[in-house]
Predict the 3D structure of the following.
Amino acid sequence: MSPLSSKHLLEIEDFNHDDIELVLETARSFAEINERSIKKLPTLRGRTIINLFLEPSTRTRTSFEIASKRLSADAVNMAGSSSSTVKGESLKDTAQTLSAMSCDLAIIRHKFSGAPRILAENMDCHVINGGDGIHQHPTQTLLDLFTIRERFGSIKGKTVGIVGDILHSRVAGSLAPALNSLGARVVFIAPPTMLPARPDILGGEVVYSLDDIVSELDIVYLLRIQAERASKIGVPSLREYSNLYCMDARRAKKLSKNALIMHPGPMNRGVEISSDLADDPRTAVLDQVTSGVAVRMAIMYLMLGGDSNGATA
């Protein structure tokens, strides 16, 4: 039986404070495993995990696949181009078909918000949201929390500036409420056209100028500008956005030497972050990627009945 309070992880609110603490503590033991020469555990041998990625993804899909294999699960990868959805099959029918094959866990990424819930309602197994539309990306949030805590020891009391397209960001949609619940101060930094109508519902203050707040930030979380949709997100030009919100060496001088710069990837160098700063020691982008494998191992392990001693199982 899973020690987590929720069968599924469809949005970050499915995990209460104790669940989040358990995931982060368990991930620490898996992070140590990932530094060994032999990184494989027999923990989930015989369990079947389906990665159903119906929207392009490199980091999240690969991270889940590696995490599954390091726990010795049988991982089955399905992309949109290879699933029957391209033939017109509904997501409900796909879910029921996969459920009939007796899998244990399904991870889904989809361009439409709410798709993971359709899967959960039509499958007997556990379901993890790997990112749905502009709704949420809860496992990204958990790996971000893990990265912050590993760097600072605690999240409580930290000021986190989330910079960019808050309105369309599933990363911000799950990260902001989680940071609030753990005692951090969240500041949304963006032009009005990139903010939701009620940013207070997500639990953040609003500041329109990065230059006005940057010196107060412990963590600068840069969101990817979806250049392919720039005409729809209220940005006159990427150059103008870069001038006002790009994290560059000039702005970085105002940060403390211990500040953390984060980005969920993929980065647009020269738009959200200057190329030289992307490689600065304060930038934790690769640490986030590393954390992702350990955190996803922990979530899958705990969902399928493990306890906090996952690395010794």
The CA atoms of residues 161 and 195 lie 14 Å apart. The first helix runs from residue 17 to 33. The radius of gyration is 19 Å.
